[in-house]
């Protein structure tokens, strides 16, 4: 998971570097259409927002190599329908397409070929159709010298859904395929190999660059046919640690501002519980979930691992996040007994991942944000009349016409949610069974409404 710089320093006998101490202090946020309408505008606003957070990331002396920047969006079907056609196939249903975004070894063509062979073998064994490979269009000259020296080969594998497989099962099969690929790559000692995303819902573009270089480096992001209803963005500042391509964010589900100060205990307890893992639908594949927390990751990457396995095991995304990052519920006099009982029950399964932490996360269906109970990484939001929702750790990262802003302080007319995301609270753009609801944001956490309680339970 680490690049050459990280591995070289880690192996040095006198080095003080320890990958277990990886922390971040970053700029994060997301843009979403609460109507669920895909557009290039959502992407454009997300890229604009992250560019306005460039001051939150560190920059090398070459003024080009950054700590890392990236976005997570829905899969832009217009672009990839075209790419499937170029590979000689026809995409009959957009949602049948899955994309694996892969960092391949940059310094070993033989290892590249082996990594791709492993991916193809696993996809075949899991009866997932392969449309083929796509080399991601890049503009390498925008990178700094150090970023170019460690830059992986970036390719995407385009995958098709088997017959008679529903959306959730398809996503689980892709998750298992990715885990199996990673295990086999480790056994084959394939270094500098990392999978950014492997999903039929989301796609990640990230790298060891500054936010202003992101759109220039990934030429897909300047394509007017790139349309999405969700765009998570992140500008990384790695606190006293070494930046790498793989540790750039977003990860597969989330982007994080802050640090997890309980990380050692969280990792140890997750490892201790692995022997008790049980889920009927995983069956013989349950060992592919282990280790739940992948070694060599930052605190943010470990939290992403935990969120992913809870969600893939059948929990709602918001349910999983409130398990991992709960409010300070025990002494909250305004919380109903039913909601306290919910948090007390969830506390039996895991310990809180405490920050300070501001989190944005998405599974491609819901875009959400969460602030841990310490409340030291606030986020602010605006909602426009046409359904564009912008939340970020910075004020003014996107210029919106104030005449079109219908909400920016009190999303449920409750005084505790005024102007910022409060400690222990979570907000989300919800998705109903029949599509996106044209509704304002719903808060869950320290003081949820009755409807939010029902959804959490």
Short description:
By secondary structure, the protein is α+β, with helices and mostly antiparallel strands. It has helices at 4-11, 40-51, 77-86, 109-125, 145-150, 167-187, 211-217, 263-272, 299-312, 317-324, 337-346, 450-456; strands at residues 27-33, 69-74, 97-104, 129-135, 153-160, 194-199, 202-207, 230-235, 254-258, 357-362, 367-371, 380-384, 388-392, 405-407, 426-429, 431-432, 435-436, 442-444.
Essential attributes:
12 helices, 7-stranded antiparallel sheet, 18 strands, 457 residues, disordered N terminus, alpha+beta
Folded structure, characterized:
This protein is of the alpha+beta class and 457 residues long. It is built from 12 helices and 18 strands. The protein has helices at residues 4-11, 40-51, 77-86, 109-125, 145-150, 167-187, 211-217, 263-272, 299-312, 317-324, 337-346, 450-456, and strands spanning 27-33, 69-74, 97-104, 129-135, 153-160, 194-199, 202-207, 230-235, 254-258, 357-362, 367-371, 380-384, 388-392, 405-407, 426-429, 431-432, 435-436, 442-444. A 7-stranded antiparallel β-sheet has the order 7-2-8-1-13-12-14, with helices on one face. Strands 9-10-11-15-18 form a 5-stranded antiparallel β-sheet, with helices on one face. A hairpin with a 3-residue loop joins β12 (380-384) and β13 (388-392). α9 (299-312) crosses α10. The protein is globular. The two termini are 36 Å apart. Mean pLDDT is 84; it is low at 1-6, 409-420 and 432-457.
